[in-house]
Amino acid sequence: MKVDELIDDASTKVIVCCGSGGVGKTTTAAALAVRAAERGRKTVVLTIDPARRLAQALGLPELGNQPRKVEVDGFEPAGELSAMMLDMRRTFDDMVHAHAGPEKAKEVLANPFYRTISSSFSGTQEYMAMEKLGQLAADGEWDLIIVDTPPSRSALDFLDAPQRLSTALDGRMIKLLAGPAKAGGWGLRKIVGAGFSLFAKAVSTIVGGQLLADASAFVQAFDSMFGGFRERSTRTYELLRSGGTAFLVVAAPEPDALREASYFVERLAGESMPLAGLVVNRTHPVLADLPGPKALAAAEALERRGDSPLAAAVLRLHADRVSVADREGRLVARFTRAHQGVPVTRVPAMPSDVHDLAGLRQIGEQLSAG
Q: What string of DSSP letters covers 96-123?
């Protein structure tokens, strides 16, 4: 996979890094963003990782829900880099402010039913990541947006979130809720009791006599906004399928991570979404042209003679490294046999966690070298 060609291509507007949790997805997205900015793109990276290590690596005290320009000593990109961290609740609140008048927005934000939905609704984090992507794309301020997606266990969580949430909250569902609420609540209880799972968690956290009053007030205040959910999610979905978007599936050289990556690849293909390739992080390439068995035999010979214990230890480490590299190679080969034509880029494991721009640059170079 030719990463530099991807980020240098002016027609590439969005790069989405997706995969399971714990595979270095956030760091990969940040490294791509740094490299793109230094190669002349005006770039913004959107992350969902609440840990402060990414902000520290970029030389920022913290990341907020709005893009913040990266301006630190030693970083003078030909382009520009901004970074932000998704705040799910703030993004939901901003959407209310954007699509409602001041008085109605105030009413919605104060509603207990809304506060529960905005923080507990199934799929909200995934939906809000896509909502924020849609906002960034609509602004037109950046010529490259790099998205670090939520660490979903299933590709369906991420790809289906906009459609699931918009379907649950579009005008027809609101009519179902509005009618029962105005009729005294029997219909609402019947809907929830019948197993309306998307609302079950939210509703279960609102107790007491205010449930129906809060729900009714929420519906009446928010009704005019729900119709836009489907439209916005449809626009974002089409953006994801457009030729200006590229998906990078990120994995580690482990069976579970590669199985998840395989599922992502199949899901993206099923949705006709543009896949740029697979990034396999934390690999262990062999650093010397010496077969593992020969290294082990040489180490044993030195130990028998009592000579050069340090050399024997190094030979044993090399033999172990060859074994690990062979295992990783078999796992990646299994993936490539199942998904022929998907480009693969390997990024060697770093000696320590990435904590500064130099580390992100190094990962960017490894991504480019492939």
A: HHHHS-HHHHHHHHH-HHHHHHHHHSTT
